[in-house]
Design brief:
The complex is a heterotrimer of chains A (307), B (250) and C (327). Chain A has 307 residues and is mainly α. Chain A contains 10 helices and 2 strands. Chain B contains 9 helices and 10 strands. The chains are: A mainly alpha (307), B alpha/beta (250), C mainly alpha (327).
Chain lengths: 307, 250, 327
């Protein structure tokens, strides 16, 4: 285990963490403010990637594809909110789970119908397609650094928005007590729509940014959805700060766990059992983490006050 | 005091900067009806919540029949004989009035880990349940789903559920809240008949009911007991009149 | 004083009293219909429906009666199935051994995970049951000697006290039938019992139940274990039916499908779980015959069911009956 490998994996962990944050932020806001469990959020992420591929085929420019796909993802999110989700806010969580599960089915198989089941790819912009030398012997892909930078920038933007603007204050208030906010005369419908649309856009953005690295295929949102839920549960529902910290934690734990589990286990057992048990433990690591956190703090680490 | 059935010693509870229960010492004797009065926000419901175990005090002890129950969970306290009613009716709306009370009877009637046999048909449970309903005047409404009862009937049901537990101490949190004159009079009659059977802590705003029923009255202001004594004594206490009763009694 | 007991409001049946009888009669007749029409596939399809119905009924106990939305229920099916699979690798192929083991393993996992899960509530409960389901899934995927990701083929169905009874398709069908019947009867009794009443009460008002003197946690844990064991039974039967086990039996998508089955039929009615399982699987059978993209249609159908048919299929049927008997 060399320090270079460790450094690379830490950066990979940060990149995964930042990606998770982009997806989890929308999820935790929607759940925090509207008390709405949106399983289809992962499909939103997938849709962003597919739309980017489609627009790239039309325009040949990554930037245009990015902008158009974001707009389309936002539009789609708003349509979903208006047509379906809006009617479910006062229903119980089970109804949310089933309805959004139905949306997942529809989207996962819908993209298969439209684009086929074969994985697609999105070329990354020329400018960022190389690798850069960060230190002696440490070479890292530029695009991954771009993702990290974009994610941190958005986190900062969200922090400013939520903590220092009026709409952010409404969101924070809504996350603590939506009924009260509505009673105070705020147009709660519009607030919900804005929150939902923004979250959908963030998820779509994550999907677009990761598309050049991963392959774009049906169901790609399923795994990220589960991870995002683990993030918001550990971080505390309704809390952006919690989502950010938990996302980085999960990103690092998952990445480092997968890379080094076999090596760490080899310290206590033989190479062959380590090679069997290692990957299993690595995939379970974040769930074990979540179980431990929930056992000690049944409402997560930084729940929005009042939950 | 050694023979108090319920004794609170220096109970303290704050929510952030707000001190809701302020070094409160309080006791209830066997068989007495001890009323707790005070303005809104004085901390009366929080006090009841701490005694019944729904809220944990920051410090202080709660002794029930000589036993320290401060760390016991709510259900264990109920098992020991501490029953309560809620200020906002907390019943099982989908169950009939009878079943609401029968469940309370069931909790005292042997193990509930029985998986065979129809609970709703058990005469051993329904009998005492009907008796409790009759006590509060709800016998005719036994089969009605509790969610469909009128407000006053729900308050009576709250009382019946608590009675069915055969408590040693009954904590009543504003049982007359929102009831009309007739229903209030009926509840007062029920409580008057039950006096002496067990101890009652009655939190109430309705002064007529309080002075009609109480053996002792404690006045709770800003989390502290301002005065405590017989109804006549408290009514005449100048501090109490100034702080509270002056506005309530015309 | 004579106390007449109206039907407990907890399970209003309206005009559908005859439904369970009808359902079981229909199931009992399927092999006969298959004999007459020569369509032997009906029998194995029927077995499959009943196997998932067992798991769905168990989940209805949790979700419909206990308001405990478990998103990891498929894990218990998988554990039951893997018990059969793993034992068969070691040459243990009799149901008299593998069934108790399947039940014990799923009950044990339910107990261990339930202790942790039931400390939470709401969405946290959903997530942590999901997490434990995923843990089971990943463990199974990593079991290389037992097939890992690809799964494990079982040489033959379990013998029953040495007799290869289960190998006969029709005999197996009726074994599954009686398992479903037994499960249904047991759960019906459970729900109406003292125990069941506490669980139902806790669903409506857990704080009230605590102040009456019930340790709700213990009752929920017991329900969770019972539901897990019953799902283990379903897994045991599934492994025998398909003669194959795979981690996919435990995926979170499978857990989601189970929840859909229960909701589709109608929560909190037990009959609904059976109807829902049948509706889901038969729709899958039927629609996938037309197009492999049937889920594109099914997804929106689910959304519509949630929006407009709140009591599921049973609710719809009850409304229809009410409308006919009134006219």
């Amino acid at each position: 285990m060399s320090t270079t490998l460790l450094a690379v994996q830490i950066l990979n962990g940060l990149q995964l963490g930042v990606l998770l944050f982009l997806v989890a932020a929308g999820l935790t806001l929607v759940f925090g403010v509207m008390d709405f469990i949106n399983l289809a959020h992962g499909a939103q992420y997938m849709l962003g990637a597919y739309l980017a591929v489609a627009f790239y085929a039309l325009t040949g420019s990554f930037l245009s594809a990015l902008v158009l796909a974001l707009a389309a993802a936002l539009a789609f999110g708003l349509v979903l909110e208006f047509a379906v989700f809006r009617h479910l806010y006062d229903r119980d969580h089970l109804d949310h789970v089933i309805a959004t599960f139905g949306i997942i089915l529809f989207l996962n198989h819908g993209v298969k119908l439209v684009w086929g089941a074969a994985p697609l790819s999105l070329p990354m912009p020329e400018l960022f397609s190389g690798s850069v030398r960060l230190a002696e012997g440490l070479v890292y892909p530029v695009w991954r650094l771009v993702i990290i930078a974009a994610g941190l920038a958005i986190a900062a933007l969200l922090y400013v928005l939520v903590a220092h603007t009026r709409i952010g204050m409404l969101v924070r208030a809504g996350a603590t007590n939506a009924v009260m906010v509505s009673a105070l005369g705020v147009n709660i419908r519009r607030l919900f729509m804005i929150v939902f649309g923004f979250g959908a856009m963030l998820a779509g953005f994550a999907g677009i940014m990761i598309a050049p690295i991963l392959s774009v295929e049906p169901g790609m949102g399923d795994n990220i959805l589960i991870l995002a839920f683990v993030v918001i549960v550990i971080g505390g529902i309704g809390s952006i700060r919690g989502a950010f910290l938990a996302a980085l934690l999960i990103g690092l734990v998952d990445t480092l766990g997968r890379s080094f589990s076999v090596d760490i286990l080899r310290l206590v057992m033989g190479p062959s059992p380590a090679r069997t048990v290692g990957p299993a433990i690595a995939s379970m690591l974040i769930y074990l983490l979540m179980a431990v956190v929930l056992y000690v703090r049944p409402t997560g680490l930084f729940p929005a006050k009042g939950r | 005091m050694a023979d108090a059935v319920l004794h609170l010693e220096k109970l303290r509870k704050s929510f952030g900067a707000l001190v809701v229960t302020d070094d409160l010492t309080f006791d209830v004797m066997p068989g007495e009806l001890h009323a707790v009065i005070g303005p809104n926000g004085a901390g009366k419901t929080t006090l009841i919540n701490q005694i019944s175990g729904l809220v944990a005090p920051d410090s202080g002890t709660i002794l029930f029949a000589g036993r320290d129950i401060s760390a016991l969970p709510t259900h264990a306290r109920a098992e020991l004989g501490l029953a309560r009613s809620f200020q906002v009716s907390s019943i099982l709306p989908g169950f009939s009035a009878l079943e609401n009370v029968a469940l309370a009877v069931q909790s005292r009637a042997g193990s509930s880990f029985r998986v065979l046999g129809r609970a709703a048909a058990e005469a051993a449970l329904n009998g005492p349940a009907m008796a409790a309903l009759a006590d509060v005047g709800l016998a005719e409404r036994a089969q009605i789903p509790a969610g469909e009862l009128s407000h006053g009937e729900k308050r009576a049901l709250e009382l019946a559920i608590a009675l069915a537990l055969q408590p040693k101490v009954l904590l009543l949190d504003e049982p007359m809240a929102g009831t009309g004159r007739e229903e209030t009079a009926r509840l007062v009659e029920v409580l008057r008949r039950l006096k002496g059977r067990f101890s009652v802590v009655l939190v109430e705003h309705d002064m007529t009911a309080v002075f009609a029923l109480a053996d002792r009255i404690s006045v709770l202001i800003y989390g502290r007991i301002l005065a405590s004594g017989t109804p006549a004594g408290v009514r005449a206490d100048p501090r109490v009149v100034a702080a509270y009763l002056g506005d309530e009694m015309e | 004083m004579a106390v007449s007991l109206a039907a407990s409001p907890a399970r209003p049946r309206g005009g559908l009293q005859a439904l369970p009888g009808g359902i079981f009669l229909a199931f009992a007749l399927i092999p006969i219909v298959a004999l007459l029409t020569g369509d032997t596939y009906l029998v194995s399809l029927g077995s499959r429906v009943m196997i998932f119905a067992i798991a769905a009924v168990a989940l209805d106990l949790l979700v419909g009666y206990g308001a405990l939305i478990s998103f990891g229920h498929a894990a218990f099916i998988g554990l039951g199935a893997y018990a059969v699979g793993i034992l068969s690798v070691y040459g243990i192929t009799d149901a008299l051994v593998s069934l108790p083991v399947a039940l014990a393993v799923s009950a044990a996992y339910a107990l261990l995970t339930g202790v942790v899960c039931l400390r939470t509530s709401g969405v946290y409960f959903i997530m942590i049951t999901l997490a434990f389901g995923q843990m089971a899934f990943f463990t199974a995927s990593s079991l290389a000697p037992f097939g890992g990701d690809d799964g494990l083929t079982i040489a033959a169905r379990n013998t029953l006290a040495g007799f290869p009874l289960l190998r006969d398709e029709r005999a197996f069908y009726y074994v599954v039938f009686f398992c479903l019947l037994g499960t249904y009867v047991f759960c019906r009794a459970l729900v109406a019992s003292r125990f069941g009443r506490v669980v139902r009460g806790a669903k409506e008002n857990p704080v009230r139940m605590a102040t009456i003197g019930f340790d709700v946690y213990r009752f929920q844990l017991a329900t969770y274990v019972i539901a897990g064991a019953l799902a283990g039974l379903s897994g045991f039967l599934l492994a025998n039916a398909t003669e194959f086990v795979s981690p996919a039996y435990m995926s979170w998508q499978r857990s989601g499908e189970l929840i859909v089955m229960v909701l589709l039929g109608g929560l909190g009615s037990l009959d609904g779980a059976i109807v829902g399982a049948a509706a889901y699987l038969l729709t899958e059978e039927w629609l996938s015959g037309f197009t492999e993209h049937w889920k594109v249609i099914f997804g929106p159908v689910l959304v519509l069911v949630v929006l407009f048919a709140r009591g599921g299929l049973i609710g719809l049927a009850r409304d229809l009956v009410r409308r006919f008997t009134r006219g």
